[in-house]
Design brief:
Layout (H helix, E strand, L loop, with lengths): L3 H9 L3 H5 L2 H14 L9 E5 L5 H8 L3 E6 L2 H11 L4 E5 L13 E6 L10 H14 E9 L14 E6 L4 E8 L4 E4 L1
Length: 187
Amino acid sequence: MATVEEHYEDHLAQHYSWLFGDFNNMVETNRQFFIVHKLIPGNSKIALDLGAGSGFASIALAEIGYSVIAIELCQKLLDELKCHSGSLDITPIKDDLLNFTAHCPESAGLCVCMGDTLTHLDSFENVKSLFADVYRSLKTGGKFVLSFRDLVFELKGTERFIPVKSDSETIFTCILEYEKEYVRVMT
């Protein structure tokens, strides 16, 4: 079975941004989310984007005034982030998100971990370790924002097949396989 990094580099990266629709609309959706939830720069202008992907959140955060440290394991997605970010204050770093503290020179005001990023961690211990590291890396009053798919209730039969996006040439579907302690997502 491929590692998360191999899966993204060899398969998912070429479809990643397409799956979400218009790139600029995704950046704007993220920007509005941060503004509506008052996640604007405060006591620290440093924001961490763990699992930055192609940059939807990183670019939005930089547009509202953050200096963003964007951690991403997939070089192809980092290259796309660089292409879209222009002169915005974003530092793209290729590394495992569990190593983010090595790239964070000072305490952050905000840390985001969006999409399915959190579910790519391979153990509960890694999740606990990540949360502890984020807590230690935030300034007093800093925020940690997570988004993830709700996988608590097992889907059965054809409910396990999730049509993600299609066009005249491509159909992209996820299949969820519920194991004892984790859910395998196949694309």
